[in-house]
Specification:
- By secondary structure, the protein is mainly beta.
- Helix content is 15%, strand content 44%.
- It is built from one helix and ten strands.
- It is elongated.
Length: 181
Amino acid sequence: MSIPHTRAQRNRSRMITGTALAALLAGAGTVLGTPPAAAADAVTVGYTCTGPGAPGGVQSLLVTVTAPAGVPQGSTADLSVEVTTALTVPIDVPARAATGEMTLELGGAATGSVTATGFTNAAAVPSGSTVTLTGGTASVGLGTAGAATVTPGAAGVHVFGVTVACEVSGTAPVAATIDVT
């Protein structure tokens, strides 16, 4: 009978660890991205996160949205996103154990929103290191001429079966502008 108890203890420990890691990734940040289409500057965005073990208060993340500088009217722009932080994880994270997504709000000559998906940590992350999630992408159709803006929105992080949802606290700055001609 001690085997089920030991297994239950391991499962509980894994759940607690997953909750703590999800909160840390969401509150501390992640890196999301693909190879850049054009150089982009990072913007600082404040997030408030909810879910099991989510950190209290506003967490600042450095967000980079990479987009083409310009596209013809009626075409599609491919976007990639990076989110970084200096905070570190308290445990080893196996490769592909964490995933995430981020909503990107459109403005200027564009309206609506798109969601960048496909983020994961491609490599194992040792305890005490910052986390990098890569592979997130989104595409946006741009039908109106002018300057279309892309602003970071809500984000979610999933790790070890735990989800933490993060909302922008205050107003996020524009992270990319695309000239639609």
